[in-house]
Backbone:
C-alpha cells in the first residue's frame, strides 16, 4: 500500500472553515475523501430529559452551523492522560477519537467529534464517520492557554525534535527492522496532499502541519514495538521520548489549525 501523509479530519475541517471563502462542494470532497458520506448527530444537553432521540443529518448541517461570522475555529488532539483544552463534556469521546474541532460563531459555540466506524479489509478499508456535535461554553481562553502561538509551537517543535532524536538514538539498542527504517525514510519525503487543503494556506502553517504529521506517523510506527530494548528502564525511557515527540507534534498541529478572531 502506498504511503500517504494524512491530517486528522478535524484539522482538515478547521483549515477549510478558516479559509476566506470555502467552496462547500470542494470542502466536502476534501474532508470525506474515500470515506462514506459523513453524517452529523447533535447530542442533547446533559439536562435534556429526552436523551435517546438523536437525529442524524447530512454533513451540510454541520457546515450550516459553522456559517456565522466572525468565526473562531480550533482543534484538540487529546490522548489518555493529556486532554489538552478539550471541553469536559466531550473529553471521553474526543480522547477515544483522538481529535475534535471547536467552533464559535455569533450564534453558537460547540464542539464536533468525528466518530469513525471502520469496515472492510486492510487492503480495501472503509470508514463511516459521524460528527457528534455538542454545545459548550466559550473555549477560546482554554485553547490559547494550552496551545499558544504558532511561532512558539514551531520553535518548540524544532528544538524538541533535536532533543528527542538524540534521546532515541542513545536508547536504541538495536537497529529497527528494515521495513520500519524504509518507511521512516519514505515518510520524511512525503508532502501533504494539496487537493485536500484550501488554496492560499499560509506557508508557515503548511510547513508546521506537514512536519507534525510526519512526526506523528513516525511515532506511531516506532511505538509498534520496544525497539529491541533489553530492560524495562530502556523501554520506559524510549516510550517517554516518543510521547514527548508526539505531544510537541500535537501542540504544533493544533496551533497551525486554529484561527481566533479576537
Residues:
Amino acid at each position: 500500500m502506498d504511503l500517504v501523509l494524512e491530517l486528522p479530519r478535524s484539522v482538515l475541517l478547521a483549515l477549510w472553515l478558516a479559509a476566506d471563502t470555502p467552496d462547500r462542494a470542494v470542502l466536502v470532497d476534501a474532508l470525506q475523501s474515500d470515506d462514506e458520506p459523513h453524517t452529523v448527530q447533535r447530542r442533547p444537553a446533559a439536562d435534556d430529559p429526552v436523551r435517546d432521540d438523536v437525529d442524524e443529518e447530512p454533513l451540510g448541517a454541520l457546515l450550516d452551523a459553522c456559517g456565522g461570522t466572525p468565526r473562531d475555529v480550533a482543534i484538540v488532539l487529546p490522548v489518555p492522560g493529556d486532554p489538552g483544552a478539550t471541553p469536559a463534556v466531550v473529553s471521553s469521546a474526543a480522547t477515544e477519537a483522538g481529535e475534535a474541532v471547536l467552533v464559535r460563531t455569533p450564534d453558537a459555540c460547540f464542539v464536533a467529534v468525528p466518530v469513525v466506524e471502520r469496515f472492510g479489509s486492510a487492503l480495501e478499508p472503509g470508514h463511516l464517520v459521524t460528527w457528534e456535535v455538542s454545545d459548550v461554553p466559550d473555549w477560546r481562553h482554554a485553547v490559547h492557554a494550552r496551545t499558544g502561538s504558532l511561532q512558539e509551537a514551531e520553535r518548540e517543535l524544532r528544538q524538541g525534535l533535536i532533543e528527542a532524536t538524540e534521546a532515541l538514538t542513545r536508547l536504541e539498542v538495536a537497529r529497527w527492522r528494515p521495513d520500519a527504517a524504509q518507511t521512516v525514510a519514505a515518510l520524511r519525503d512525503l508532502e501533504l496532499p494539496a487537493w485536500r487543503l484550501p488554496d492560499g494556506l499560509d506557508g508557515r502553517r503548511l510547513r508546521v502541519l506537514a512536519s507534525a504529521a510526519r512526526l506523528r506517523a513516525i511515532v506511531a510506527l516506532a511505538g509498534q514495538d520496544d525497539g529491541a530494548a533489553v530492560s524495562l528502564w530502556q523501554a520506559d525511557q524510549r516510550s517517554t521520548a516518543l510521547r514527548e515527540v508526539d505531544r510537541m507534534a500535537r501542540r504544533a498541529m493544533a496551533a497551525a489549525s486554529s484561527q481566533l478572531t479576537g
Observations:
- The CA atoms of residues 7 and 213 lie 6 Å apart.
- The first helix runs from residue 9 to 18.
- The chain is about 45% helix and 15% strand.
